[in-house]
Design brief:
This protein has about 475 residues and is mainly α. Among the domains are: about 10-205; about 210-310. The protein has helices at about 10-20, 20-30, 30-45, 55-65, 70-80, 80-85, 90-105, 110-120, 125-135, 135-150, 155-165, 170-175, 185-205, 215-225, 235-245, 255-260, 265-275, 285-290, 295-305, 310-320, 325-340, 345-360, 365-375, 380-390, 395-410, 415-420, 425-435, 440-450, 460-465. Helix 1 (about 10-20) runs antiparallel to helix 2 (about 20-30), helix 14 (about 215-225) crosses helix 17 (about 265-275) and helix 17 (about 265-275) packs parallel to helix 19 (about 295-305). The mean pLDDT is about 90.
Length: about 475
Amino acid sequence: MFDPDIAPSGTLLGLLQRGRGDGTLHALAAPRAEALAALHHCLLRDPRRDWQVENRSLYYARLCLDLDAGLGELEAHLFCADDLLDGSEERTGLALAVLGHLASYGREDALLLLRRYAISGANWAWALDELALRDDDAGLLALGESVVARFPAGPEGDRELAAAVRDAFEPRPWRLWADEAQSPATAPRVRAAQEQGSFDRWQRQLRPSGPRPGWSVREVLDWAQEGLGLHPVQHRHVPATRCLNAVAGPEDRLEIIEAAAFGPEAARATALRYLAEHDDPQALDLIEAAAADPGALVSEAAVTAFERMRGTAALERARAWIHRTDALGGAAAGMLASRGAPYDAPLVLGALRRTVRAEGPDAPVLWDLVPGAGRLGITCAAPVLRHVYRETSSSHLRGRTAQALAATDPSFATGFAVECLWDCEETTRELAAHHATTADARVVEQLRRLAADPAEEDDVQTAVRSRFGPETAV
């Protein structure tokens, strides 16, 4: 099911929230006031399912340019009272990224707004990263004293400044502010912060935590279990599995099997992962039992352990488990979709239809089932794939669905591939550039625009140029 904030896919707002190419096309055809209202709704209430990986900023920035949108709403959003109470990146990150793209397109008002927010905004570090990519040295140098002044002189402020310098995504501003010749007012403190960051990293290397060489299997399992008693809780079963790989030998197999069957939850999760990674003959039976455990840590570790298995025995068990309705059944469906043979196509198709019907177009297992339908060339899956394409709120899943449709749907080149040229995800635009029919005048015009756009990704532009002969002007 969709999150409550996602509008139906047939509305202009719903299209723009999903980042679909049809969103841009419909916005340009709609009354400007309606299009701007929908655009601003997206900019002020980030609609992405996963804001850290899904792209929207360039998509919305291009639409801002096409609609000649002002920045008043963004300014009010960035500098409202909520910014004093909520400094989380989720609230302002999308708006700042859009301003960054607008600045790269030459919008001076966007550049000025980013500078102002870097001085006084709560999410100033994001704004500074955007400026590091787009502003000139003079503009960045003018911000130095104001940004460094955020950290009061003294031990605590110096520690916070060192952390900010160390963790900066774009180091260019800090390097400018550490230059005595260019920024004498900030250079001493910033240089000291840089040195402190290097010293902190060196100290962490000298004081590693965790298992040491010579630990026994029991000590590794106990270390994993101890993490659950800490505050905050530390889930150590993944690093503990790597430690087991280093210390365990054939003589320890029975002890690990016992831990996987009867041990406390973190030790059990560690042992399950270890046995699965080594394709132990007992692993699959232990995973099946653990998947029904009422504890989330054990059951989830069992499913993850199964997903990591690569042997033929795991594939055979996946064919038996694919009809299960629990997480292990979903993992089995994903395994067959990713690694199954052509004769597994009916099982994958059945799982795809069943998942969409029961869990909707955003079910996690669709990330494997959808590409699997394309990999296995299941042409009769095209109708359900078209449904997922239209309805999913994940732009990444939509991109995977477009790839599957390109392999299964003969109408893709004249249908969804056309709107994919305006999609928010660069990989989806690249796919469309390879497949969209040039018989559509909109396609040729958009291909030319993408080829000439300095903000467009290189892979997309390479795909665009591949559609034109050497003597054809793009």
